[in-house]
């Protein structure tokens, strides 16, 4: 049993959450759309879907660089950076731990 449905071409509403069929990572719909009509629209289109960021260390997902204000990392969210370490976001940021270290704390 899976908790979240896998993305398929369908009609989506803001707030719908689906998993990427290639990675299994969850994404949240940020703009209502119908991908059965607009066949180029899929879960990789960042104007339609944003990465889900974990608020729990145990469910941290790989870092994805934000593309806009809609998908910044928020205070209290976790991610696994490219160095393999888990980081907790200390303040809302669209920067990585390399670009703005004070916004992140390594979890030991």
Q: Calculate Rg over CA atoms.
A: 15 Å
Distance between the termini: 31 Å
Provide the residue-averaged pLDDT.
95
How many DSSP helices? 0
What's the SSE pattern? EEEEEEEEE
Low-confidence stretches: none
Give the number of DSSP strands: 9
> Considering DSSP H and I runs of 4 or more, what fraction of the residues is helical?
under 10%
**Largest sheet properties:** 4 strands, mixed
Shape: elongated
Q: In which order are the strands of the major sheet placed?
A: 6-7-8-9
- Beta-strand percentage range: 15-25%
Structural class: mainly beta
Describe the protein's architecture and organization.
It is built from no helices and nine strands. Helix content is 0%, strand content 24%. The model has no long low-confidence stretch (mean pLDDT 95). It is elongated, with a radius of gyration of 15 Å. A hairpin with a 6-residue loop joins strand 2 and strand 3. Strands 6-7-8-9 form a four-stranded mixed sheet, with no helix packed on it. It has a three-stranded antiparallel sheet with strand order 2-3-5, with no helix packed on it. A two-stranded antiparallel ribbon has the order 1-4. By secondary structure, the chain is mostly beta strands.
């Amino acid at each position: 049993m899976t908790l979240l449905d896998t993305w398929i071409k369908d009609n989506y509403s803001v707030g719908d959450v689906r998993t990427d069929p290639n990675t299994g990572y969850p994404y949240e719909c940020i703009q209502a759309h119908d991908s059965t009509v607009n066949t180029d629209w899929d879960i990789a289109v960042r104007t339609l879907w944003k990465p889900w960021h974990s608020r729990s260390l145990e469910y941290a997902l790989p870092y994805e660089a934000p593309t806009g204000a809609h998908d910044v990392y928020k205070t209290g969210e976790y991610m696994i950076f490219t160095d393999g370490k888990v980081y907790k976001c200390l303040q809302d940021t669209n920067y990585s731990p390399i670009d703005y270290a004070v916004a992140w704390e390594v979890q030991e």
